[in-house]
Amino acid sequence: MELQGSCHCGKTSFSVVSHTPAPFMRCYCSICRKCQGGGGYAINIMGVYSTLKVTGKEYIREYKALRDKTTKELCGNTRYFCGECGSHLYAYNPAYADSVYPMACAIDSPLPVVEPKDIYHIMLNKQSKANWVLAPTPSPENHAFEEYPDTSISQWHKDNNIQY
């Protein structure tokens, strides 16, 4: 399915094909929370990098977050934002060169609705999740994980019969 996305001010937009468009995974890590706007978690989906088309590239800014502020280790993802309004648009990691990760909040196209029971919650460890954020207690039954889940984005879509 082709997705259309844009920033808040309209200076940048993008399109990307996604075979995994359901926004099912909430990441509570400090990088996602803070880059996304401080709402407690961020939701990204996956697209096919070779199909990414961006307009307003002159307004795009990049940010590579520190995974560990003590060791200065960088996160693998580069995050792309609108330099005018600050909207986080997508992330890219060359280690997964075929994929790009648009932020669900930047997508203008209708996305599949995910039932609350099917939502996964990741990075719930004390170093990641803010103490004021309400989230399920980590356990496989809750689809809630201290770090990463027991499934991939592609596998979750297959298991839930959501294929595009």
Automatic annotation (TrEMBL):
Domain CENP-V/GFA positions: 3-133
One Pfam assignment: GFA
Transmembrane segments: none
GO molecular function: carbon-sulfur lyase activity; metal ion binding
Keyword terms, alphabetized: Lyase, Metal-binding, Zinc
Keyword Zinc: yes
Matches recorded under Gene3D superfamilies: glutathione-dependent formaldehyde- activating enzyme (gfa) (3.90.1590.10)
Keyword Acetylation: no
Record InterPro entries: CENP-V/GFA (IPR006913), Mss4-like_sf (IPR011057)
PROSITE patterns for this protein: CENP_V_GFA
PANTHER family referenced in this protein's UniProt entry, alphabetically: DUF636 DOMAIN PROTEIN (AFU_ORTHOLOGUE AFUA_1G09754) (PTHR33337:SF44), GFA DOMAIN-CONTAINING PROTEIN (PTHR33337)
Family the UniProt entry places it in: Belongs to the Gfa family.
Protein name in UniProt: CENP-V/GFA domain-containing protein
Species annotation: Phycomyces blakesleeanus (strain ATCC 8743b / DSM 1359 / FGSC 10004 / NBRC 33097 / NRRL 1555)
Lineage: Eukaryota, Fungi, Fungi incertae sedis, Mucoromycota, Mucoromycotina
